[in-house]
Design goal:
There is one protein chain. With about 650 residues, the chain is an alpha+beta fold. The chain has helices spanning about 1-15, 45-65, 65-75, 90-105, 110-125, 135, 160-180, 185-200, 215-225, 225-240, 250-255, 275-290, 295-310, 345-360, 365-375, 415-425; strands at about 30, 35-40, 395, 435, 440-445, 450-455, 460-465, 475-480, 485-490, 505-510, 520, 525, 530, 535-540, 545-550, 555-560, 570-575, 575-580, 595, 600-605, 615, 620-625, 635-640, 640-644. The chain contains 16 helices and 24 strands. The chain binds zinc ion. Zinc ion binds near residues 342, 343, 344, 390 and 417.
Length: about 650
């Protein structure tokens, strides 16, 4: 019994938690992170820091700030909710989720026991019918002001009851798939069954005020096969756009845009409103579309993706430009001095782009995912693994202050969504490197690792070696047990093909490119390009080695003339990394720097600096990778530099 359970869980991990009996799903399957062992220097270090520093620190904060006490009080049905927001429960769920991913590849009995004890506390806080929301359960006569006098009555705006459920479903699924234990999953299913009894046609309806329950329900559906969960996810998505708002109001809180609730989702054209909510909605739509074949959902998220990438994204991949409402701005409204760029929005953007790739098999989604990952997302965590940005600035000057503008990272926040979101993303990162469809293998990210796959029923190991993101020479050794017919599809990043970003919002000054040369066992090999992939379909033998070199040229980047904020300015990119100028390397000040056109930068390897980086040095200016800024004290920083 124990053996067969383990075997079943293993299969779930192997197939990314997908239920094999399902008829329809994403046409492409990611290779689960448990099958991919990193051997790199860049991400492994961060994932290890996440395991040894960030996760324990996060659990400690959940205790010291009262988040755990809220559950203890809810279990006793007595006390006073003692943190600020009704969604503070989710920090515990997300930390358990991150810990679960970590436990899946790094057994740790002490951590397991701690997580189990916490899950036990969560179980006791759950009401008998499955309701789980400490902000009400502690003292149902005096719930949190955002929660409303009765269950669900404020769900369409700020109660976050379904938001809490969604994060719990994600965490419980991760915990179950990682450990094979049902203790957290059973809590989640009891809550999901309450939602099924409460919401749906002929029952209550609501457009969830902060999306994520849709993705969470899909994860429970994948594990259980219970179609009611999938139907409810779709039901929630379809409730958007039916509430009465003042559509003429310019206040997006009142006209519905903030909640992506001003129009039915299938009529939506633009990335709008609160950026994290938006990313979770579009991700949920992709999931439901993959499982139901809903073409209208796909058409809508395709339109919205084009809008976001073409008009509403920063050059380092940040989204949600406007602090008031943590939201997308108008077209091309991308201010530098007040850029908001919530870390959670970057994380949500990774979730969404991965799903768009799994739907469409186009490398442009991974191009964007990579841009976000190495730049606007990674800046959200400090090199110490325990300091975080909630917002990610584009420009910091000594003369300008703004309440939204963070100049240094903090250990935690009153609203601490970003640190806990970061700690659940990082350990799952190996799951973004490879994907499969039939006998095709996609190599999306360039992170040294050993991956164990099955192609055409044959076991295959792939050994990836490189020094990315610093160097462009890549090597992939294929070790099938026996020769295997396989379509190898290696992403040739947009930046290596003269494209700063899909859609042209930012462009390289020098767009000339040379075709990337690929060698197999040292001999130049023919390949064809399909949707951003170099494709080689052939029989691969044990030990076949594929090598290629991506051009790590220093590239000047300019914004489209439609972005007035960046007119006459330039930034620098090398490989996937966008660079910035920081005070420390530039005489204490960067706000007054201007460079002449065609300025030459020389890459200089600095193992001693910022955990080991390649800086870009010119006669006037030294630039560091954007992700590494704000690790050496407070001071000026700018991504864009004026051009003389
Ligand atoms: Zn956040």
């Amino acid at each position: 019994m124990v053996y067969s359970m383990k075997k079943w869980v293993f299969c779930c991990l192997l197939f990314g938690g997908m239920l094999r009996a399902q008829q329809r799903d994403y046409p492409i399957s990611p290779v689960a992170f448990t099958r991919v062992k990193l051997t790199d220097a860049f991400w492994s270090l961060r994932i290890e820091l996440n395991r040894t520093v960030t996760i324990p620190a996060s659990f400690a904060r959940c205790e010291s700030t009262g988040r755990v006490s809220n559950f203890v009080m809810a279990a006793a049905r007595k006390g006073k909710f003692c943190t600020k927001f009704p969604f503070d429960d989710t920090d515990i769920y997300k930390t358990i989720e991150g810990a679960s991913y970590s436990l899946a590849v790094h057994p740790d009995p002490v951590l397991s026991a701690y997580v189990d004890a916490l899950i036990d506390t969560v179980a006791r806080a759950q009401e008998p019918d499955g309701y789980l929301y400490t902000a009400r359960t502690i003292d149902s006569l005096h719930p949190h002001p955002w929660s409303g006098p009765d269950r669900w009555v404020k769900e369409h705006e700020l109660s976050h009851e379904l938001y809490n459920s969604g994060h719990m479903f994600e965490a419980a699924s991760a915990h179950y798939l990682a450990t094979g234990q049902r203790n957290f999953l059973d809590i989640a299913l009891k809550n999901a069954d309450l939602l099924v009894r409460t919401f749906g046609p002929g029952k209550r309806s609501v457009a969830p005020g902060h999306e994520i329950v849709e993705m969470g329900l899909v994860r429970l559906y994948r594990i259980t096969g219970k179609k009611e969960y999938l139907e409810l996810a779709k039901f929630f998505i379809d409730q958007r756009g039916h509430r009465t708002y003042d559509k003429t109001s310019t206040d997006e809180w009142k006209n519905g845009e903030y909640w992506q609730d001003d129009k039915p989702v299938t009529d939506q054209e633009e990335a709008e409103g609160h950026a994290v909510r938006a990313m979770y909605l579009y991700s949920g739509m992709a999931d439901v579309a993959a499982l139901t074949g809903d073409k209208e959902y796909i058409a809508a998220i395709d339109r919205i993706w084009n809008d976001m990438v073409g008009k509403k994204i920063y050059v380092q991949g940040g989204i949600g430009a406007v602090g008031s409402g943590e939201r997308f701005g108008a077209d091309y409204e991308l201010p530098n001095a007040t850029a908001y760029n919530e870390t959670c929005a970057a994380i949500g953007d990774v979730f969404w782009n991965q799903r768009m790739f799994l739907l469409h098999a186009d490398a442009k989604y991974i191009d964007l995912l990579e841009k976000v990952l190495y730049n606007g997302l990674l800046s959200g965590v400090g090199l110490d693994g325990k300091s975080f940005f909630y917002t990610n600035a584009m420009q910091v000057t000594d003369s300008f202050t703004h309440p939204d503008l963070e100049r240094e990272r903090s250990g935690w926040f009153e609203c601490s969504c970003c640190p806990t979101n970061m700690l659940r993303l990082l350990p799952s990162l190996p799951g973004y490197i490879y994907a499969q469809k039939g006998h095709d293998l996609y190599i999306n990210l360039f992170i040294p690792d050993t991956a164990k796959l099955v192609v055409d029923g044959k076991a295959l190991r792939v050994v990836q070696e490189n020094d990315y993101p610093w160097k462009g020479d890549l090597s992939f050794t294929l070790l099938p047990d026996v020769p295997v017919s396989m379509g190898l599809r290696i992403r040739v990043p947009g930046w290596a093909r003269g494209e700063a970003i899909p859609g042209g919002l930012y462009v390289f000054d020098n767009k000339e490119t040379q075709k990337v040369v690929i060698r197999v066992n040292g001999t130049v090999a023919a390949y064809k390009m399909e949707e951003g992939y170099a494709v080689m379909d052939r029989v691969w033998k044990p030990g076949d080695k594929v090598t290629m070199e991506l051009p790590m040229r220093v590239q000047e980047v300019q914004a489209s003339a439609k972005v007035p904020e960046d007119a006459g300015k330039v930034t620098i990119q090398r490989g996937p990394l966008v660079y910035c100028a920081e005070w420390k390397d530039n005489g204490g000040k960067v706000s007054d720097i201007a460079v002449s056109k065609g300025i030459v930068f020389t890459p200089v390897v600095r193992p001693d600096l910022l955990g080991g980086v390649t800086v870009l040095q010119s006669s006037k200016l030294t630039m560091i990778p954007y992700y590494a800024w704000a690790n050496r004290g407070k001071g000026e920083m700018t991504v864009w530099v004026k051009e003389k």
